[in-house]
Write a structure and sequence with these properties.
The protein has about 100 residues and is mostly helical. It has a domain of about 70 residues. About 50% of the residues lie in helices and about 10% in strands. The chain has 4 helices and 3 strands, in the order H-E-E-E-H-H-H. A 3-stranded antiparallel β-sheet has the order 1-2-3, covered by helices on one side. Strand 1 and strand 2 form a beta hairpin.
């Protein structure tokens, strides 16, 4: 029984070493404007919309990072109230714009 447990332990260590030594895949998200590029195709994602919103806000002189926009709904709401009229951020700011008609059903 001890030999079987030892064999399993050695197998587990070998598998772990194989995973630790493997190169991690490049998992960086690539955004082009408000769209994430996946397999060469643009897909609208909230992550890239927030990054785009922060970039456009900086062009307007608002000191904000993409991380701040993603992590704080109040920061996103403030930025959208200020620059939500810009065509480049309308989809990211649709819920924060006062002129957007709302459905209550």
């Amino acid at each position: 029984m001890l030999a079987g447990a030892r064999a399993l332990l050695l197998l587990g260590m070998a598998l772990t070493a194989g995973f630790v030594g493997a190169d991690p895949a490049d998992a960086k998200i690539v955004c082009r404007g408000a769209f994430q590029i996946v397999n060469g195709q643009p897909i609208a994602t909230p992550y890239c919309e927030d990054s785009n919103l922060a970039q456009v806000a900086r062009e307007y002189g608002i000191a904000v990072t993409a991380r701040q926009v993603r992590q704080s709904p109040s920061v996103k709401a403030r930025v959208c109230r200020l620059i939500g009229h810009d065509n480049r951020v309308q989809s990211a700011c649709i819920q924060y714009r006062p002129d957007t008609p709302r459905r209550w059903f």
